[in-house]
Amino acid sequence: MQDTLWQAGPQRRQAVAYSGPVLPLLLATALRLRAVTVNEGELAADRVQLGILRRKLGEHLATYRRAAGVSQPELSQAMRRTRTTVSKVEHGTRGMPEASWRIADEVCGADGALIAEYQALAEAEQDYRERWRAHQRQARQAAAQPAADSLRAAPVPSLMARNHGHTGEREGRPKISGVEAELAEELMRQLVATLARSLGRRKALQVARWSLGIVGLAGLDADECTRVVLAVTSPHRVDTRVVKNLATTLAYCKRQEDTLGPCEVLDTVIAQQEIVRHLLDGDCPENLRRPLSTVDSDMATTIGNYLRDMGQPDAARRYFDRGRRAAHQAHNPACAAYAAANTSIAAFLRHDTPTAVDTAAAARSLAARTDDARLKAFAELQAAAAYALEGQYGLCMAACERAQEFLTNDNGPAPGSLAYWVHEGTLDSRRSMYLSLLGRPHDAVEAATNALARYEHTPYVHYQAKCAVRLGTALALSEEITEAARVLGDAASFAHLSPRLTAELHAARALMKPWDTTPAVTTLDAQLDAYGLRPSTAPSW
Length: 541
Fold this sequence. Notes:
mainly alpha, Serine Threonine Protein Phosphatase 5, Tetratricopeptide repeat
């Protein structure tokens, strides 16, 4: 252990001289996180290597194709794919299943060379995915263990129990086994109680940075970490910078969710909201209650979004209600509109038409009181969803057109918008889902295809994956089974991002049951099995 600690650097070695109940927790966490960081570096290097292998495979395909005198259109026709797909494969920017590589190998006269190279790449990708999943489990376990040990050893009740007289759920908070929520309570209970006393400024800065980094404040500098810690200790010390710091950490978590999915950030945001609720329950200055309630509303609605995508609709509904109440306490129509719109999404997914219609109307009305074009477009999309549930094609498309008008008149990126991620790709992706529901799958295919092209250069991986599944659904409804199987097979690698995405993938596969024995569908099933997925038996939206 001494060797590991020495390698960890002088700042962590200095922590050995500290005293107090939080130090075993911090030291163990720091050492475990260091091991996790090393694994992340290895995985990053492997990702680069996989990219190189994909490009080489694509280059070799192009070489064999040219040598055989085969054009890209001819090869794409033989594989029943588009010329653009062949071009992307040759440039190493996308893949295709083994069945297509076998056709390419035969058409290009590669005598099995392309198949062998593809299989080697597929094995490397599978190995990477397994190690990545193992790394994620290790990361959660590494951070959870010291917090769990401390919680078992500590006789004092949690901060929530002291403040509210119980240890049960608060505001519908789900029972979570994730690490950040447990660690947040431990830090709120022990660290906050000792940090401001006798450690001294330099040591306090180090402890604050390490500890709060676990619950989402790692992006702040040491001074700002200390500012938040002291505010938690004494809510009357809350100032505008504390509120801004909390909003900044939420924004960071949202960007992480765009790429990693809700499962990876849910606990962190819940831990952050506990801090906000603690500050609001304390004697924070009256002039800061509105901005702090705004952050509370945004966090509650965000948590509701994550829970909805993770298949916990009842808990999600309670958080949406909390978001709307906090928004009204803050007198913030934008936050209220955002919470109402997301409540409408949840109702749409439950096929609860009356609630979907009513909350979409509330979102529209509230969004109209703001100057946020993307939020207004988002509200219109929820109205369109409610109309699609009612089977009203004309009203649904009219609402989509109004959303398009808002986006057309938008003056560019809106970093401060709650609906910052809404753009033309979002509109076409949602429109595709509504058209499939309304029995117009061919139009849905066109909309989803356009949406994927618009998502191609955006950071919204989770939304892009949902769009791909919607394209696969529309293709299946159009009975274009070969292409549907290909699209869904490509999307399967992203199914881990959220249970909702997995459920939509299963629903799309269930639509293909009449073609279970076709080569395209059996290939898709093999891909689903490789990712540990099990198709559902009945479609759901």
